[in-house]
Amino acid sequence: MLFLRSLFFDPYNKNSMAWRSRAKRFALFRQWLSQFPRPLKILDLGGTLTFWSTMDFEQSDDIHIVLLNLEATPVDSSMFTSLAGDATDLSQFKDGEFDIVFSNSVIEHVGDDQAQQRMADEIRRVGKAYFVQTPNLYFPIESHSCIPLYQFMPMWLQAGLLYYFDLTGGGIRRTIQAWKARLTFRRFERLPCESWERCVSRVKSLRLLSGRKFHRMFPGSRMYHEKCLGLTKSFILYTNP
User: Which residues contact 42 (CB under 8 A, 6 or more apart)?
Assistant: First the structure.
């Protein structure tokens, strides 16, 4: 499982499938973005400065990107502004305030069906155009846990797999440390973010979408299917300029 995570799902490993998929997605976004007249004001829901830097997005005087997360984070570029907010309630922004709303793997984390629809409605309200991506519910390997068919398992089993194999927030190194400790009958000290309660919370926070359901949230949009091994790994919904 650890090997699969590193090889396929580590978004910061340039040799991984996840990094190549993200780079291809961003190339598609650049191509789509080139159709819009400048200057551009972009709202990135759940975005980070690291993401844009990793994708080598060049500094531009005619593009400004607002990063919106539950907590604001420091930014060191005049091209970016970081704000605190909720993707399901963008009442701090006016109708059509942004030329583009961008969202990468966020809508599956905001809550139940009603919360996801609120996020979709808010994106359509504040953005003149949008580019929204989410993983496919029916892709056989769930991209957050890297476990085959994980999304169809009962909640107690999902949480158990995260607790024993994932170490929420700890990553690959912590997982290896934990299993070395178990195999040598030593005590392994868990961090607060690795608690059972945290694992259950993480399971509850993830609600993957089918393509049909995702498309219904954004009427009038166009859909692009991201492929992996001939199967649809994720969906992108976008509007024409």
Answer: 63, 64, 65, 66, 98, 99, 100, 101, 102
